[in-house]
Write a structure and sequence with these properties.
Oligomer: single chain
Largest sheet: 8 strands, parallel
Strand order of the largest sheet: 11-9-7-6-3-2-1-12
Structural class: alpha/beta
Number of helices: 13
Distance between the termini: 104 Å
Length: 383
Amino acid sequence: MKKIFICMLILLLSGCVSAEEPKSPPPVEEPSPPAEPEEPEDSSLFHEYNEQAARLLREMTTEEKIGQIFLVRYPEADKLDLYLSMKPGGFIMFGRDFADKSKTEVIDNINYCQTTSTVPMVIAVDEEGGTVVRVSSNPLLSDERFKSPQELYEYGGYEEIERDTVKKSELLSELGINLNLSPVADVSVDETDFIYERSFGKDAEKTATYVRTVVEAAKKQGVSSSLKHFPGYGNNVDTHTGSATDTRPFEQFVSSDFIPFKAGIESGAESVLISHNIVEAIDPGLPASLSKNVVGILRYDMEFTGIVMTDDLSMGAISELRAELSPEVTAVTAGNDMLIVTDFESSFQTLLNAVNSGEILMDRIDESVLRILKWKYYMKLFR
C-alpha cells in the first residue's frame, strides 16, 4: 500500500498525471449585421408595368401629360384632328358615333385614332345593357340589343350574366373598344329610384356577386371595367340635369352601398367612376366627384390602386356649381386620375394654366399619368 502511494506521488510530481484544467469559455460569436428591411411587395393593380411607364413619363412634355388626364367625348368630324393633336388619354363614344355605321367603319375610325396617337388611347363606351346600349342599338353591329342585368338574371341567373358579358366584351374588343363603363354597382331595390332600371335591382350581397361576375368575365376578354357610380347612387335624382344631395347616414354606405364596389375592386376592376351626388355624410360641400374625402375612401379604406375617374364634368350637377376653383382643378386636386369632359379645348387649357401657375403641382399630375400609362401597358395597347 505504501509503495502504491509513493508511485502515485512520483507521477503527480513528474506531471504525467495532472488535475483537470479549467475549460475555456466558449468563443464569443460576432453579432450578425442587422437584416436589411424588406421592401414591401408592390401589389398595385398595374405594378408589373412600373418601369416601362416611368420611362415613358420622363420623355413626355407638360402638354402631353395634361392630355392624358382627359377621357374626352368623341368629337364631331371637324374637330377630330384638333383633339387628336392635343393627345387625350382617350375617347368615350356615344350612340351618335355608332349610328348607321358598319363594323368596318367603326373599326377604321378607331384605328385612325390609335395610329394617329403617339400614346395609345383608351376607347370607352357605356354598354350596360337595357336602357344604355350605345353599340348594340345599331343592328349593323349587333344582332340584338344587350339585355339589362335584371332581365339576364331572371332568364338564367349569374351564368347568363357571365355569358352575356363574354359576348358583349368580344364585340367591343373586335371594334377596338378597350373600356366598358360598366357594371353599375349601385344598390337599388326601389322601382321608383332613378338608377333602378340600370342597376341589378337586388340587395348589396347579390349585387356584389353580379359585379364580380361581370368584372371577371370582361377581364378574361381583355376589356377593362369601370364600377359606377361611387360611392353609391341611392335614390338620388338624375345628375345629368341638376344637383342631387344624398342625406343618408354613413353607416348605410358601409353596410350596403360599398359592398358591391369592394367586391369589384377585389375582382380586379381597373377603374371606378365617381358620381356627382353631394353625399352629406362624407363631404357636405362638394359633389363626390370633386371630393378628396370620397377619393380617400377609395384609395385608403378600400385600397383601390386602379384608375379613379369623374363622371362627365359637363353634366348639370357640375355646370351649375358655383365654386372658387374650376371643376377640372378641383377634381385633379381631389385625386382623380381621369376627367370625363365634352369641351376638351377649354378643360385642357384650364388644367394647363393651373399647372403652369403652380396651382397644381407637377407631382400630382405625374402620379395620375404614371398610373394611366401603366394601365395602357396592362391593356397591351403598346405595340
